[in-house]
Design a protein that fits this description.
7-stranded mixed sheet, 10 helices, 3-stranded antiparallel sheet, lipid metabolism, single chain, alpha/beta, binds ligand LQQ7U7AH, 2-enoyl-CoA Hydratase, Chain A, domain 1, 44% helix
């Protein structure tokens, strides 16, 4: 529910924090800031080991720029930091939208850090998988508008992050690829990866894509609807911010309730099966045959370089 008070718009975000944390929070946003603001930019950067987060008080838009060398692989540490930052932004009354991007001009994210899945104890694997779940729950279940500015390649877990956003803009470069390529590594995308993709590109295209572990060039990703728009690399952030302002022109409460209506069943499915999903992951990843596949894949990645 939104009410006007002294030039401030108080927007109830209700209980749309969709993953178990029932938050009734009020976000105050100067109405003028739905339009381009003339006042000076007041960025507030915080937390910066694996990413920088900068919130523009004038627009209510935060930019999360992933910056974990060399390829933004999603390690346990990265995922934990990401979830904390999302939580902080979610609770910040001034933040209404997030643009997710990368400081690496060629790679959005290389997906899950394979080293976290290879040669680890079951306890570590379980902790890691819970962090992967948490990243997705925070992003897919966010009340904020989320836009992925995909300024480089984005396989597997990187593609999942983009799929969890509300809108995807990819740099128009034939060298960049995006997709859920898990089967190529001999592993299986879990049901909530699959659901995320179905919700974006539909069932038939997802089945084709997942079985073959397809990676799509930027133009093919646009054709199948895996991304919404292609934009020149140097325009991607400006464009993402301009799309964001269109989304933020919609009253928060109406957009958030609509988002919840669309996403809640998918979120609930993981929330209901969270522990068994972790157990499945640990059992699967501990198999000798899967460890062998991951070992070969890691070696292949290293050899590719030399
Ligand atoms: C019954 C059902 C039960 C359910 C069971 C669940 C099973 C698990 C499901 C797991 C789900 C998701 C999995 C993933 O996300 S796995 C990760 C998939 N990612 C990839 O395949 C990407 C691999 N990387 C690349 O293709 C390329 O590296 C790149 C990203 C395109 C970048 O290319 P580049 O030429 O710029 O850089 P490159 O020289 O290749 O790499 C630089 C160094 O980075 C290392 N590296 C790359 N990717 C990863 C990664 N994902 N994890 C860890 N390390 C990575 C690479 O080895 C190089 O290292 P070094 O410099 O040689 O030491």
């Amino acid at each position: 529910m939104a009410v006007l008070l002294n030039g401030l718009r108080l927007v109830s975000s209700g209980n749309l924090s969709l993953h178990g944390i029932k938050s009734l929070q009020y976000k105050s946003t100067r109405i003028l800031c739905q339009l381009p603001c003339k006042s000076s930019y007041q960025g507030r950067p915080f937390s910066n080991k694996n990413m920088t987060v900068e919130l523009d008080n004038n627009t209510g838009v935060a930019v999360i720029q992933m910056k974990k060398p060399p390829v933004n692989s999603l390690s346990l540490e990265f995922l934990t930091e990401f979830a904390i930052n999302m939580e902080k932004l979610e609770m910040d009354r001034e933040c209404r939208g997030v643009v997710l991007t990368s400081s690496n001009p060629k790679i959005f994210s290389a997906g899950l850090d394979i080293n976290e899945m290879y040669g680890k104890t079951p306890e570590h694997s379980g902790e890691f998988w819970r962090a992967v779940q948490e990243m997705w729950l925070k992003l897919y279940g966010s009340n904020m508008v989320t836009i992925a500015a995909i300024n480089g390649s984005s396989p597997a877990g990187g593609c999942l992050m983009a799929l969890a956003c509300d809108y995807r803009i990819m740099a128009d470069n034939p060298k960049y690829a995006i997709g859920l390529n898990e089967t190529k590594l001999g592993i299986v995308a879990p049901f909530w990866f699959k659901d995320s993709m179905i919700n974006v590109i539909g069932r038939r295209a997802t089945e084709h894509s997942l079985q073959l572990g397809l990676m799509y060039s930027a133009s093919n990703a646009l054709k199948i609807g895996l991304v919404d728009q292609l934009v020149a690399q140097d325009k991607i952030m400006t464009h993402a911010l301009s799309v964001m302002s269109e989304w933020l022109a919609i009253p928060d409460h109406a957009r958030q309730i609509t988002k919840s209506m669309m996403r809640k069943p998918t979120l609930d499915r993981l929330l209901t099966n969270r522990e068994s999903d972790i157990q499945n992951f640990v059992n699967f990843i501990s198999k000798d045959s899967i460890q062998k596949s991951l070992q070969l894949y890691l070696e292949m990645l290293k050899q590719r370089k030399s």
